[in-house]
Amino acid sequence: MMRAIVTGYSSGIGQAIAKILEENSYEVIRLNSRLNDKKALEKEVKQELKKAEIDLLINCAGVGVFKPHEEISLDKIQELIDVNLTAPIVLTNLCLRSLKKTKGHIINISSIEATRHSKFSALYTATKAGLRNFSLALFEELRRSDVRVTNINPDLTKTNFFEEFNFEPSNNKNAHLNPDNIAKQVLEIVQFDGVITDITLRPQRLEIKKK
């Protein structure tokens, strides 16, 4: 059985990915450590790797904030950097020797905001663009080791990600993505005979609604 670590598994895109992997004979490892607690994370990952190597690492956990930069608290700034950027880099570091042994796959869930420059998204964009560029550079580093690296940039997706914001995706089914379809795309990427290094997933329409 193939083994996968998936972050952000409790809801949204991460939950859908964990579910589809389990339906396709993966053992999904759900880490309990907080992503900003590097020592606890290191201890838990090392314990898992003592049991068996891993074949797949999916960094899906993410948080956002969209407001004037001077209105964002310093704690919130640190949280976004920790969860969106530092945690995937740290987890990759901890898992990479194992992934080299299994010739495994790293998939980072970034954002459409990593590819553009939107008002009130400077902090979020910085973290997601950092993750995207980490992925693309890491692919070049790992090509000879046969470890595949994929970065995915989803556009508006109907999840609880928008609970704390003053906007959310439109109810028009053509104006947002859904987690299950993104999970299906992840499975196709894993099964693809080659490497999809960077892919952007978008709905046909652009519609949001104010709360």
In short:
This protein is an alpha/beta fold and 211 residues long. It has 5 helices and 8 strands, in the order βαβαβαβαββαββ. The chain is 42% helix and 17% strand.
Strand content: 15-25%
Instruction: Describe the sheet with the most strands.
Output: 6 strands, parallel
Identify the CATH class: Alpha Beta
Order of helices and strands: EHEHEHEHEEHEE
**Averaged pLDDT:** 95
Whole-number radius of gyration?
A: 17 Å
CATH fold naming: Rossmann fold
* Extended strand count: 8
What class do helices, strands and sheet pairing give? alpha/beta
Oligomer: single chain
Number of helices: 5
Distance between the termini: 45 Å
Helix content: 40-55%
Name the CATH architecture: 3-Layer(aba) Sandwich
Q: Which regions contain 5 or more consecutive residues with pLDDT less than 50? A: none
Q: Total domains, how many?
A: 1
| Major beta sheet, strand line-up | 2-1-3-4-5-7
Can you tell me about this structure?
The protein has helices at residues 12-22, 38-51, 74-102, 122-142, 179-191, and strands at residues 2-6, 26-29, 56-59, 105-109, 148-154, 167-169, 198-201, 208-210. The chain is globular and about 45 Å long. The chain is α/β, with parallel strands linked by helices and 211 residues long. It has one domain: Rossmann fold (3-Layer(aba) Sandwich), CATH 3.40.50. The N and C termini lie far apart (45 Å).
